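Severity: low
Component: inverse-folding endpoint
Summary: output formatting inconsistent between runs
Steps to reproduce: submit the following structure tokens with default settings.
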């Protein structure tokens, strides 16, 4: 096989920018802290011709711009690799771009409505703060016209999300909740202009603008939570190998991974992701396929072994024969499971739309019958119209529209203070309905990174020597030991022998870290399940380090608290039974299963759902993402993969498991408040509507009553932030 240099064609990803430069977004793997930002930006900026390198820590993306002086843009990826990071060209999804544009539009509408409402309220206070008899008609008219000059253009701009939705519904010959909202705002403003022109005492500009402001607050919050899901889900493409090294005779050809077909022979080098499902036909290595199986230990592969797309190859070059590509790999199956499971979550939205379709025509019919009744009774047309508008305003679904979002806003803040960030607008209701909790083990019940568990029994100086030597190895056990190092400077001249360990000369004496045979140490008998050993030898002394994943510090207390809430608990893990059993026993969870793939986890969830259970799934691996999407509601820790976080309805921060319990408790309280608010809104309409129909309410009083009902449900919603001994305030970490 002849050697050849492979170049990546970046023409598809590079886009023209200002001043004749080209720009590209890169999804970067391995960013773990703020220090990574300066390291990455410095490495890329040092390349000749690079004019800009900017890292977005939130979504782990790097934006690079360069001029013609950068003759080989592929050097950007080499610079990342030289500093310990892997980069993949990222193409923003059109849906994500549209979501971002809509978010900016809603924010501008909210700002305009808030600014206008404050100024109009100031004008209203100026009119009514003193003795009414001291205000001349000319002064009152001036303030009313000034309010109109602010309110009309502000409403025209800030009301567009509602007006456009209402117009689209009417054009489709249907009704939604935005129709009565839009009609109420337009009629209130129109009536205010007419009353101002006729020198009347009352105008209702402030009511119309305040209505828009409150509704925009709820809509902006809901959109922000939904948009976050799309933003991180876009990084799923980074888990795929963009290109593959396919054999053509005795030569290698760099081709797009999407061009692979079953039967192709492919070379997978150390550090690269497997581009397609296949079978190893040459070489041996260690594969990290926790992406698929959830198994934390690396898997040794050789001839005849099956490997999956997205798995990471570590120690040796592999030649594989493709068995599934072109959309039929296991990673593609996971994507399809995500889409299928996520689409089943629209039930609540469909119910809300049906309720809106019923509410809207009732409101319109009531106002129309009021006008007809008063007109036929002999009232002047003007009075009949005023009474009908009062009915329309007083029945405007402001309180009803705020009943749920107001509680969501307050409850979301309470959750955030406890380290829980919502991804989904209706997650609170579904969290409150959960009666069964399914935990993944690795990274969920346990901390995501294994640690040394016998450090207290080892001489500190010796432990630090071993930890510094571990800095020169990429083996998972060595990396766990390296986390104990106080100095981050590895020993000079350290050499790693694949599959054996790493050695270096320390103070003139050779030291070794790795397997028992490599270090000449006595093999440690396996004790407690889930514990692995790594050996260190120096100057004739042998030390054994026990490595294991630890339970989260409050896992036992949290599991007991969830059990006290009446929840049924399960553990489903991709890890082997021997690793799952001790965790289940320590937590007192008798219902557990190990060695499950994503489809098997979903099958368990579906069987529970068939029994009428409402499942809360808590997991962190990509292999858990389909299960998170299939569950009634889901949570994941902040350490989870980006795609897993995208499928979770909420993400919790820190190393505590307690936020899972906090989420359920707060959600249950919030649901009670939501139901109370709905009853308050219904009671308000039951009392106010007959009074308005009877002609006993002016439009001003109707607007005040409408605002009063909104204030009432908002004040009730604030109770969702009440402190409770069940979930103490404090640092979530």
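Observed output (run 2 of 3):
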């Amino acid at each position: 096989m002849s050697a050849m240099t492979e170049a990546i064609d970046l023409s598809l990803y590079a886009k023209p920018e200002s001043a004749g430069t080209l720009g590209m977004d890169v999804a970067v793997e391995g960013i773990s802290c703020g220090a990574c930002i300066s390291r990455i930006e410095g490495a890329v900026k040092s390349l000749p011709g690079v004019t800009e390198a900017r890292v977005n820590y939130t979504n782990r993306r790097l934006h690079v711009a360069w001029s013609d002086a950068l003759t080989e843009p592929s050097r950007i990826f080499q610079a990342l690799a030289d500093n310990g990071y892997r980069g993949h060209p990222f193409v923003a999804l059109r849906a994500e771009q549209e979501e971002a544009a809509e978010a900016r539009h809603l924010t501008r509408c909210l700002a305009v409505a808030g600014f206008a409402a404050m100024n109009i309220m100031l004008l209203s206070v100026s009119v009514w703060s003193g003795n009414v008899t001291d205000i001349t008609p000319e002064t009152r008219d001036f303030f009313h016209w000034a309010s109109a000059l602010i309110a009309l253009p502000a409403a025209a701009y800030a009301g567009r999300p509602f007006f456009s939705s209402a117009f689209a519904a009417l054009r489709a010959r249907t009704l939604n909740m935005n129709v009565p909202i839009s009609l109420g705002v337009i009629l209130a403003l129109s009536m205010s202009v007419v009353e101002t022109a006729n020198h009347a005492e009352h105008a209702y500009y402030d009511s119309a603008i305040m209505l828009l402001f409150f509704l925009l607050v709820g809509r902006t919050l809901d959109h922000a939570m939904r948009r976050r899901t799309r933003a991180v889900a876009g990084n799923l493409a980074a888990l795929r190998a963009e290109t593959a090294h396919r054999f053509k005779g005795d030569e290698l050809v760099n081709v797009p991974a999407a061009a692979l077909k079953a039967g192709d022979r492919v070379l997978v080098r150390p550090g690269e992701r497997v581009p397609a499902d296949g079978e190893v036909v040459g070489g041996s290595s260690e594969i990290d396929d926790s992406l698929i199986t959830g198994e934390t230990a690396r898997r040794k592969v050789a001839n005849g072994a099956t490997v999956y797309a997205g798995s990471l190859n570590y120690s040796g070059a592999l030649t594989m024969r493709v068995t599934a590509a072109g959309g039929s790999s296991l990673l593609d199956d996971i994507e399809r499971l995500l889409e299928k499971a996520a689409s089943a979550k629209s039930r609540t939205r469909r119910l809300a739309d049906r309720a809106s379709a019923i509410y809207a025509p009732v409101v319109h019919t009531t106002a129309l019958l009021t006008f007809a009744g008063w007109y036929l009774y002999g009232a002047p047309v003007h009075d009949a119209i005023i009474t009908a508008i009062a009915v329309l305003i007083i029945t405007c679904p402001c309180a009803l529209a705020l009943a749920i979002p107001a509680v969501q806003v307050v409850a979301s803040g309470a959750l955030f203070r406890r380290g829980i960030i919502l991804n989904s607008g209706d997650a609170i209701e579904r969290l409150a309905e959960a009666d069964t909790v399914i935990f993944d083990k690795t990274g969920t019940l346990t901390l995501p990174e294994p640690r040394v568990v016998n450090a207290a029994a080892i001489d500190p100086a010796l432990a630090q020597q071993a930890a510094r030597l571990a800095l020169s190895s990429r083996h998972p056990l060595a990396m766990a030991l390296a986390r104990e190092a106080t100095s981050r400077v590895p020993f000079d001249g350290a050499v790693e022998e694949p599959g054996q360990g790493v050695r270096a000369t320390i103070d003139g004496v050779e030291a070794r870290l790795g397997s028992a045979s490599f270090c000449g140490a006595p093999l440690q008998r396996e004790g407690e399940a889930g514990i692995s050993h790594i050996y260190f030898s120096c100057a004739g002394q042998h030390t054994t380090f026990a490595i294991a994943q630890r339970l989260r510090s409050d896992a036992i207390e949290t599991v007991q608290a969830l059990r006290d809430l009446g929840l049924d608990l399960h553990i489903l893990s991709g890890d082997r039974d021997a690793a799952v059993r001790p965790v289940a026993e320590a937590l007192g969870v008798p219902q557990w299963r190990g060695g499950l793939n994503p489809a098997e986890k979903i099958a368990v969830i579906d069987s529970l759902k068939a029994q009428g259970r409402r499942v809360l799934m808590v997991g962190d691996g990509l292999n858990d993402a389909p299960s998170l999407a299939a569950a009634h509601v889901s949570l994941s820790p902040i350490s989870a993969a980006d795609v897993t976080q995208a499928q979770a309805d909420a993400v919790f921060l820190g190393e505590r498991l307690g936020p899972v319990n906090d989420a359920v408790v707060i959600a249950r309280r919030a649901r009670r408040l939501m139901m109370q608010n709905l009853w308050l809104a219904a009671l308000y309409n039951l009392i106010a509507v007959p009074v308005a129909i009877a002609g006993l309410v002016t439009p001003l009083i109707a607007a005040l009553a409408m605002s009063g009902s909104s204030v009432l449900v908002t004040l009730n919603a604030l109770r969702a932030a009440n402190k409770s001994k069940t979930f103490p305030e404090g640092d979530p970490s």
